[in-house]
Specification:
By secondary structure, this protein is α/β, with parallel strands linked by helices. It folds into three domains: 12-156, 3-Layer(aba) Sandwich (Alpha-D-Glucose-1,6-Bisphosphate, Chain A, domain 3); 161-368, Alpha-D-Glucose-1,6-Bisphosphate, Chain A, domain 3; 376-449, TATA-Binding Protein (2-Layer Sandwich). Helices cover 37% and strands 21% of the residues. It is built from 14 helices and 18 strands. It has helices at 23-37, 57-70, 83-92, 125-135, 158-167, 193-200, 227-236, 263-276, 293-301, 313-323, 346-360, 364-368, 392-405, 431-449, and strands at residues 12-15, 45-51, 73-80, 97-101, 110-116, 152-154, 180-184, 204-208, 240-244, 251-255, 260-261, 284-288, 305-309, 327-329, 335-337, 376-382, 409-415, 421-428. The protein has a six-stranded mixed β-sheet with strand order 1-5-4-2-3-6, sandwiched between helices. Helix 1 (23-37) runs parallel beside helix 2 (57-70) and helix 13 (392-405) packs antiparallel against helix 14 (431-449). The chain is globular, with a radius of gyration of 23 Å.
């Protein structure tokens, strides 16, 4: 099978109207994926398509539609809808394929294409490679006859269906009545569904980032710019703040005092609550190598495990499925709750936090810090060529750092999967030592790349 040229770590992504994020590539995705997901029987084959609020969605969506319909697949268009909603609807509508047009937390100039199989999970590397193998074929190959062309319809009720699914994840015995909730939707895919769900569950909702214009998605708002949420929580005297990203698969929480709660603390809160209720599956949580050591220690004290994977939600989901876990995620706020969703869902994760807020009767600030984070230091070193991690001096610096931590911390040095960067992370109880170790390793890497 040929080397992957279109798909990256999370679908196809790039600057809009520049390769590979062009109308032609989108057309070829539709053609190639459509051919692969037609099973050859006589029934009509269906693909569902959602998007966020980027201007370039108006270019990518019709190109995908042209590709799918030209090989005989029917299409249902959802319009702006969160990524997890598209995954859910793919499965619930018995579609052959689901497509999300989004670049998640990136700026409006970027866009991307994510594909979901009929089970609602992101496609495997092998399936993406199969799609790639067909994408460079001639545009005239494998087309449907005039009578077999696909039909297209907009599905106006998609948002309402997702709102009802989300609402059902909050226990029926609980209500958000009396809670002042600030929600920042990043001018993105959840700008309608998130405030609606919270309001219908009883909350007094203060909305931020709900006026998309095609170019303001993630602009100084949402989970990547939490200062906007902090300001709004203080201004509206909110009991809790919720910040989503552009496609609403990530979430960060803000307590009533304006302190940010990251994904590690959110996972700790939900995991302990579910364990107490007998709902936690797998005996622990799945997180990436970047999650704080404090989370691992807390879970260990509770008799639970923290299983670590490589960075990326795809790896987290794979381990969850292998081990039967129902909670996993990343410190960035990408939380996967397998009882409800096949991928990260910021709104559903937020509702689980709200459930604990209501149950406890405590302010969010009392729940926000489930564990004391271990001091952690990060540094990136850019390189133009070569393989710095194979350098003897770099290997020696890493070994020395691990020796100095003496089991009371961690060192992680890895190449970025998306940029020419070496990412260096160390954490341990001695903050000064951690900083020095990162500095030493970074120095060795810089010497190796000069």
């Amino acid at each position: 099978m040929k080397t992957r040229g279109y798909f990256g770590t999370d679908g196809i992504r790039g600057q809009a109207n520049l390769y590979p994020m062009t109308a032609e590539v989108a057309l070829r995705v539709g053609l190639a994926a459509g051919k692969l997901f037609r099973t050859g029987d006589d029934r009509r084959h269906l693909v569902v398509i959602g998007k966020d609020t980027r201007l370039s969605g108006y270019m990518i969506e019709p190109a995908l539609v042209a590709g799918f319909t030209s090989v005989g697949m029917d299409v249902r268009l959802f319009g702006p809808l969160p990524t997890p909603a598209v995954a859910m609807m793919t499965r619930s509508m018995r579609a052959d394929l689901g497509v999300m047009i989004s670049a998640s937390h990136n700026s409006f100039a970027d866009n991307g294409i994510k594909l979901f199989g009929p089970d609602g999970f992101k496609l495997s590397d092998e399936m993406e490679a199969s799609i790639e193998a067909h994408m460079d074929e001639g545009l005239q190959e494998g087309l449907a006859s005039p009578k077999q062309l696909g039909r297209v319809a907009r599905m106006d009720e998609a948002q309402a269906r997702y709102v009802e699914i989300v609402k059902a994840t909050l226990p029926r015995t609980l209500s958000l009545n009396g809670l002042r909730v600030v929600i920042d939707c990043a001018h993105g895919a959840a700008y309608r569904v998130a405030p609606t769900a919270l309001y219908e569950l009883g909350a007094e909702v203060m909305e931020v980032g709900v006026s998309p214009n095609g170019t303001n998605i993630n602009e100084e708002c949402g989970s990547t710019h939490p200062a906007t949420l902090v300001k709004a929580v203080k201004e509206y005297r909110g009991d809790i703040g919720i910040a989503l990203d552009g496609d609403a698969d990530r979430v960060l929480i803000c307590d009533e005092k304006g302190k940010i709660v990251d994904g590690d603390q959110i996972m700790a809160l939900i995991a302990q609550a579910w364990a107490a209720q007998g709902r936690l599956a797998g005996g622990g949580v799945v997180a990436t190598v970047m999650s704080n050591l404090g989370l691992e220690r807390l879970l260990g004290e509770r008799g639970l495990t923290l299983e670590r994977t490589a960075v990326g939600d795809r790896h987290v989901v794979a381990r969850m499925r292998e081990g039967g876990f129902n909670i996993g995620g990343e410190a960035s706020g990408h939380i996967i709750l397998a009882d409800y969703s096949t991928t990260g869902d910021g709104l559903i994760a937020a509702l689980q936090v709200l459930a604990e807020l209501v149950r406890s009767g405590k302010p969010m600030s009392a729940l926000a810090r489930q564990f004391e984070p271990v001091p952690q230091k990060l540094e990136n070193v850019r390189f133009a060529r070569g393989k710095p991690l194979e350098n003897a001096q770099v290997k020696s610096a890493i070994a020395k750092a691990e020796q100095r931590l003496d089991g009371c911390g961690r060192v992680l040095v890895r190449a970025s999967g998306t940029e020419p960067l070496i990412r260096i992370m160390a954490e341990g109880d001695d903050e000064k030592l951690v900083g020095q170790l990162v500095k030493d390793i970074a120095g060795a890497v810089k010497m190796a790349v000069e």
